[in-house]
Structure formats: structure tokens, C-alpha cells
Design a protein that fits this description.
globular, three-stranded antiparallel beta sheet, 83 residues, mainly beta
Amino acid sequence: MREDGSRTSEAARNRIAALDAVTGQATDWNPNANYPVNACGERDVVYAGGYFTGIGGQERNSIAAWMPPQGSHRLEPKPQQHC
């Protein structure tokens, strides 16, 4: 993942990407964040936090969650912000 929006391998990704563990190439997963993503983590769900207001084609203010890239690519309901 490169938060500056630069390319990962040959596929353009905006601020967040999933990379194939074997090839190092970007997967088809492309949530296209409109502003920087500063944190990302995965367990049963992929979480992203940052300064974005839109990600995955939907409005999300600073926090978003997805099913893992190898499964469903749908966004989860808006996570609650408790900051």
C-alpha cells in the first residue's frame, strides 16, 4: 500500500491497494480513496482510516470497513467513529 497514490506494480491504485502475496502485483481490489489512507488493518474485516470522505464509491468519513479482498468487495455498514 502506498498512501501517496503512486503505482503499485503496473496497476494504478489511489491511496490503498491489495497486493498478491506471491507475485507482488496489485489485485483487482480497488477502493479508490479520494484522500490519504493513514492506517489499514485486516482480521475478519479490512479496516481503513484516514482523511478520506469517499472510498469504495461510497461516502465514508475517515473510517471504512470491507470484507477481505479475496472474498466480497462490498463495503460494510458505516463503522461508528468514537474519537
